[in-house]
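Researcher: Please predict.
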Amino acid sequence: MGNKSLMKKISAKPNSLKPVPFRFCPGCGHGLLHKIIAEIIDELSMREKTIGFAPVGCAVFAYDYFNFDVIETAHGRPPAVATAIKRLLPDNLVFTYQGDGDLAAIGTAEIVHAAARGENFSVIFVNNATYGMTGGQMAPTTLLGQMTTTTTKGREQKLTGHPIKVSEMLATLNGAGFICRTSMDSPQNVIKTKNAVKKAFQYQLGGKGFSLVEVLAPCPTDWWMSPKEALLWMKEKMIPVFPLGVVKDKYGKQSTVNSEQ
């Protein structure tokens, strides 16, 4: 057991991540998702030809961590800027990294029309059902009955409507190619998240058009939970509202990426 020569290294920091510590809250899903994205870019040997776009919100820190070009855009506008860059540099891997408050609220027009046009870039959509950076206010994806700093007694349908199911909505558009929803609530689903993001990037590199992976992620701080409680809440409350799986695959078989049972 003490013979280090028999030990196999199974994990390492990806080259596409900078050697700096994350500043995210304990239990936050962003750090792990960053590592997944960086690993994929390394595996695809695309670090020197990758351009990411991050808006306002917790996603804004991306340029501090990714070891490739990341452009900060105005709130909700990453799809608009990504459209321009991808058209100018069609051989580059272009992706946006957006939260639900950004993509599903102020940025709704940008994401809808980018998908409708079939723009050939990828979107990583982090859904934690809250405005994480600005104080835990209700987001478009907040669940009915969920308490936030602006719905202190729980979200009410008569007052604020229903949570928006972005993946299902975008899948109705002819220009959308690959749409998938995954989760960060378990090791099994983390692996499925990586597979889905890699497929989205490969979809783009193959010139197949618009791809989006919606990732359900924990936000223990704004959910007023421990990291362990947040993972359980995702499994019991969040996933039933936002079912996991491939919502649309324009060039392949549609299948289900089941959550951990």
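Model: Confidence is low (pLDDT under 50) at residues 255-261.
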